[in-house]
Design a protein that fits this description.
mainly beta; Jelly Rolls; 1 helix; 11 strands; globular
Length: about 160
């Protein structure tokens, strides 16, 4: 093996470029998100009168996509979740809607993402919705005809600028 040449290469510049590319990709994917938050639901259950509020400040008059997400455990007893959704605009106009979020198919298979005992479903409730700038409040109440609903871990809201 005399005469073989060992060539050393420095991988740091390539690694740095990959890291930079990954960060740029991450930033570009989340660039339209204006608001994203969730709240935990107490382990003993979500009481029907216990509304979860999300205070959202929109920077400009524009069109937005509004998404709800639900995290639940495998022991949740139903295949869906009914919610009362109140939207309070910056000029205090209240709009109420009822939303049915499907959590499992007709065969009992959980929808959405997750593994083990945790599952998350995200649904769009408004697409390209024109909204004024200012402070908006979204209030979510469970509407499942049970005073204390067990098995829901988190509930959340995400708002993105429409593309």
């Amino acid at each position: 093996m005399k005469g073989d040449t060992i060539v050393k290469t420095d991988l740091r510049p390539k690694s740095s470029l990959l890291l930079l590319f990954g960060l740029l990709l991450l930033i570009s994917c989340t660039g339209n998100v204006v608001y994203n938050d969730y709240v935990a639901i107490p382990g003993q259950g979500w009481e029907s009168h216990d509304g979860k509020e999300f205070v959202i400040t929109l920077p400009a008059n524009d069109s937005y996509d509004i998404n709800l997400f639900v995290r639940h455990g495998s022991l949740y007893q139903y295949s869906n979740l009914w919610l009362f959704v109140d939207h309070i605009s910056p000029d205090n106009v209240v709009t109420t809607d009822t939303v049915n979020i499907i959590l499992a198919d007709a065969y009992g298979n959980w929808q959405g993402k997750g593994w083990g005992n945790s599952h998350q479903v995200e649904v769009n409730i408004a697409h390209k919705q024109p909204l004024d700038s200012g402070v908006h409040v979204v209030r979510l109440n469970q509407a499942m005809r049970e005073y204390k609903l067990r098995g829901i871990a988190n509930i959340g809201v995400s708002v993105e600028k429409s593309r």
